[in-house]
Design a protein that fits this description.
42% helix; 330 residues; alpha+beta; Aminoglycoside 3'-phosphotransferase, Chain: A, domain 2; 2 domains; 10 strands; five-stranded antiparallel beta sheet
Length: 330
């Protein structure tokens, strides 16, 4: 999804009119991952917004609307603070905007949420991970009891749609730096993950609607307030998969065992956590890691983070796989 920056800026500018925003809004690209996210500052109202331009082929307009339904429910049920999607002048919250260069894209405009992301280099991350555990427990409890509206549709992050033949981010076998030795090691990991997940099962207490990217980077701290952002990947998966997303890209950090313990403590401060669920946290970490190998392979040409991680991520993933397999078999 390589896209000319000027073309994207022009599409973002074209999104102002459907929302009745001042054409003189300042537009600043702040994130490139699955989507493009801009900060908008409206000089006429003094308001700030986040404009999310969706990449084609990832989510349908209906799936995006379902994401917004869950965000609304979490906020309205006082589970966690979330961003409010702003309706367009037509009343819809998922808007189609097009330019001759890029064609049609789905866009969503959110009110700008105040707060600061926790600094991962600030020292002790334990408090942040306890917060992540507590927030995850709150959202999981809500997901288990929430009556989803008719037509609710989000995709799944199960084995097949993560690292199997229907992977949303492509095949891990197409990751960067993948030679015969790497393929053999990661295939052993893949086989073991599949076997363990089949035994673990997908009962309603273990598998349901999750954020699927609940990292420190997706928290905003504003005094006592904790706000959760970026539900773009939310879907159906194992609840414990949410822990794996907290250590995305840092799975090899020596503090991960302590961070896992902090997350578990935070979770249990809100809800019970079955020892059998806790015992599989490392399995979900490796499932996520293998998924990220696929993500880097399919996204390195346009996502800055994927490009920076490169082939070295595959090499470290093989080391982590050997460590995991020495404990869990394979």
């Amino acid at each position: 999804m390589s896209t000319d920056g000027g073309a994207l800026d022009r599409l973002a500018a074209a999104a102002l009119a459907p929302y009745g925003l001042d054409p003189g809004c300042e537009l600043r690209l702040i994130n490139v991952s699955e989507n493009y996210t801009y900060r908008l500052d409206d000089p006429s109202s003094g308001e700030a917004y986040a404009l999310r331009i969706h990449r084609p082929g990832y989510h349908t307009a209906g799936e995006i609307a379902s994401e917004l339904d869950w965000i609304d429910a979490l906020r309205q049920d006082a589970v966690v603070e979330t961003a409010t999607a702003v309706p367009a002048l037509t009343g819809g919250r998922v808007t189609q905007v097009s330019t001759p260069e890029l064609g049609e894209r789905n866009v969503v405009l959110f009110d700008w949420l105040s707060g600061e992301m926790p600094d991962p280099d600030a020292g002790d991350l334990g408090p942040g991970f306890r917060t992540l555990g507590a927030v995850s427990a709150q959202m999981h409890g809500h997901a288990r009891g929430w009556a989803r509206p008719a037509g609710f549709a989000r995709f799944s992050w199960d084995y097949e749609t993560s690292v199997g033949r229907s992977g949303h981010w492509g095949r891990w076998q197409d990751g960067l730096g993948m030679g015969a030795e790497e393929l053999a090691t990661l295939q052993r990991l893949d086989d073991t993950l599949r076997s363990r997940l089949e035994r673990y099962g997908r009962g309603p207490q273990r598998f349901g609607l999750v954020h699927a990217d609940i990292r420190l980077a997706n928290l905003l701290i504003d005094g006592p307030a904790v706000r959760v952002i970026d539900f773009d990947d939310c879907g159906f998966s194992w609840f414990m998969y949410d822990f794996a997303t907290t250590v995305s890209f840092i799975e090899d950090h020596p503090d991960v065992p302590a961070l896992k313990q902090a997350w578990v403590e935070g979770y249990r401060s809100v809800a019970p956590l079955d020892p059998e669920d806790e015992a599989e946290l490392d399995t979900f970490v490796m499932l996520r890691r293998l998924l990220l190998v696929a993500w880097i392979g399919s996204h390195h040409q346009f996502a800055t983070e994927a490009a920076e991680l490169g082939a070295g991520f595959t090499d470290v993933s093989c080391t982590l796989a050997e460590q995991y397999l020495s404990t869990y078999g394979g």
